Amino acid sequence: MAARSFVMFVALLATGACSSAGGGGSVEPGAPAAAWTAGRYFLEATVGATLSAQEFTGELTIRAPDDLTLQASSGLCQPPTPADLQRDRAANERTFDCGAARWVVRPIPGGVRGTIRASVEEEYEEQRACPPGQAGPCYIMRTRVVTRNANLRVSPIG
Fold it and tell me: What pLDDT digit, counting tens, does each position of 72-113 carry?
């Protein structure tokens, strides 16, 4: 009986933890979605591993709910298609494809938050055969292009 009570307690505790855990920006059913706050915002993120991390920056300008622009260090931002705008409105977010990076921003009360997904060149160690007379293990540094995500740090401008 004690074991069954313990299992029920753990299940109840886990259910409570899941229901109260913070989501990735989801809105409670029936709760109004956050509105876009007009203004200018400085966006920055560090993407990639420590050895080869890359810094990305951008300046987001919000004039109205459907009038958002981004100037990004990752490249020229492509204008959204009507389908992109419809998808973004439904998700209450705005997506910008700029060079090798995709920026996604969402309104929060008094500002924005978001993420970046970027292709970066990353260094890694690869084990290889050691030269004659050298004790192992031996490694060589290699590079590869990978796609990584990061949260944006946001600061209001002016």
Answer: 999 999 988 999 999 999 999 999 999 989 999 999 999 999
Q: What is the largest CA-CA distance in the chain?
A: 71
For the stretch 137-148, pLDDT in tens is 999 888 888 899
**Both tokens of residue 55?**
């810094």
> Could you tell me which residues come within 8 angstroms of residue 136 by beta carbon, excluding any fewer than 6 positions away?
130
Distances (CA, A) of 23 to 8, 18, 68, 117: 25, 10, 25, 19
Whole-number Å distance between alpha carbons of 37 and 7 = 47
Can you name the residues that pair with 127 across neighbouring β-strands? 139
From residue 69, alpha-carbon distances to 57, 60, 64, 97, 120 in Å are 14, 6, 10, 11, 24
Q: How far, in Å, CA of 56 to CA of 71, rounded?
A: 11
pTM: 0.71
Contact 116, 101 (CB under 8 A): yes
Produce one character per residue of 72-93: b if its CB has 16 or more CB atoms within 10 Å, e if not.
bebeebeebeeeeeeebeeebb
